[in-house]
């Protein structure tokens, strides 16, 4: 029998754990929007970010703050390297989308094997323990991890929104996302904007992986599954819609975690692939959000025919 | 001798896989790396039919190929209806999802794998006969892919790959061509799966994951896409190279990642240094007469 307290607990835990899913979806959706690439190499960025934090905290014995710094450094450096040595070269060569796809997939696999060789396949975490103190609030157990994770997610969302809305580089990114060639005609350096977009995606992945790595065990191939979740959320949220992807990630996280009420936990992993497949079959263009009246709505001039003959096309 | 025969069989199976994958990714330009899952569907279907239902092995292999054909169409139709790019994502979801599913079904061996698959030809005629069978099927696959690529179907695939919009404007059904090529390539992979299962007599879900995808993709990219001999050269070179590493006596925890690094690293090197692969394809479509055509 489903108890209200149990249902509330599962909903809260699902909401808290969706924090990193939102960040992964946001990073994937941003690169897809600006760089126009289904960046499967995001798995490589995520894995490197995690293992940098792991080395800083578990191998070098530094504290969590330096672990986070190392996580950022690893994520951003890998993202920049992929853009600079990979995507930029492929763009110059006018490589086909298929070629770029293959490149992203192979990079993620290559990095995964390198990490397997260095760290083995044994799952690990950033801190020696992944159990956090719990306090009861209104009958719901809230762990010490939950609120900082949700705060981190909210901070990243607000910062990204503010960056895109108010900064010069943010405006450049929107211009390149809209029409890269036209943006170049206006003097915006497309390659630099795409580099910045990848660096931001790397930073977002780093925050996500730091949260994930302090809550769950990670192995070199784990990032692929997390990234596929981001792909499903991006498709369902509507390609090009960053906030739609974030919202879809929350919904998918809630559905996946709540599924424990109805199906055995061993099948939860399978749900991810079901989401991915169903997203493409049922929502290939994502959800269509209702049109919002915008103050910036473009006004078009309607010309009236000057004479009856003109009106008749004569 | 048994080791050499096994290597010949493995090379033959990978020639079948690489040549059929080249038909999909090279000649038709369809982006998918889930080829090994159709190999798995063929292997599991054939093994289960022969083991549990007592179906004669050759018939079980053909049904396995048919199962791969049907499942590939079920994956390709909804995704290609939207965009070619979505095929890649849908097929990865299908591949990893099915592997996850297979791990939880104890009736087909679960994560531990399916054992005691009935052998074919080995007891009656010997391993060498099985190797001959695999090599003959590999040769027939290469010939069939060449026959398809150089005939009217090949001209359609070439036109579709180069300009889908123009192809559709001429009244051709692009989706039908894509789905049929994807289905044919996958059915051939399914047949190869049956051949694998009844020789090695053991299959497990993890054999058909992303490492297998990387391996087949490497064979096609390194050998040379859209060529007859490229996938053959790629399959031979890349099947023999990992064998060389095994002689170093490295532990499996090192051997697996090293093989993976070698496969993926080679693809990256070739993508930037020699994108056309070891055997370069012609820019123009060539018919069976061998002359280049602009049509």
Write the layout of secondary structure elements.
The complex is a heterodimer of chains A (314) and B (295).
Chain A: H1 4-34, H2 42-59, H3 64-92, H4 97-119, E1 134-137, E2 140-143, H5 146-166, H6 168-178, H7 180-185, H8 190-213, H9 222-237, H10 242-258, H11 268-282, H12 308-311
Antiparallel strand pairs in A: 1-2
Helix pairs in contact in A: 1-5, 1-8, 1-9, 1-10, 2-3, 2-4, 2-8, 2-9, 3-4, 3-8, 5-6, 5-8, 6-8, 9-10, 9-11
Chain B: H1 2-27, H2 35-52, H3 57-82, H4 84-104, H5 127-150, H6 152-162, H7 164-169, H8 174-200, H9 210-223, H10 230-246, H11 252-273, E1 285-286, E2 292-293
Antiparallel strand pairs in B: 1-2
Helix pairs in contact in B: 1-5, 1-8, 1-9, 1-10, 2-3, 2-8, 3-4, 3-8, 5-6, 5-8, 9-10, 9-11, 10-11
| Gross morphology of chain A | globular
- β content of chain B, as a range? under 5%
Number of helices of chain A: 12
Mean pLDDT of chain B: 86
Low-confidence stretches of chain A: 302-314
Overall geometry of chain B comes to globular
Based on secondary structure, the structural category of chain B is mainly alpha
Biggest interface pair, residues each?
Answer: A-B, 40 and 42 residues
Notes on the protein architecture:
The complex is a heterodimer of chains A (314) and B (295). With 314 residues, chain A is mostly helical. Chain A has one domain (4-311): ABC transporter involved in vitamin B12 uptake, BtuC (Orthogonal Bundle). Chain A has twelve helices and two strands; from the N terminus they run H-H-H-H-E-E-H-H-H-H-H-H-H-H. In chain A, strands 1-2 form a two-stranded antiparallel ribbon. With 295 residues, chain B is mainly α. Chain B is built from eleven helices and two strands, in the order αααααααααααββ. A two-stranded antiparallel ribbon of chain B has the order 1-2. In chain B, strand 1 and strand 2 (292-293) form a beta hairpin. In chain B, helix 1 packs across helix 9 (210-223). The N and C termini of chain B lie far apart (50 Å).
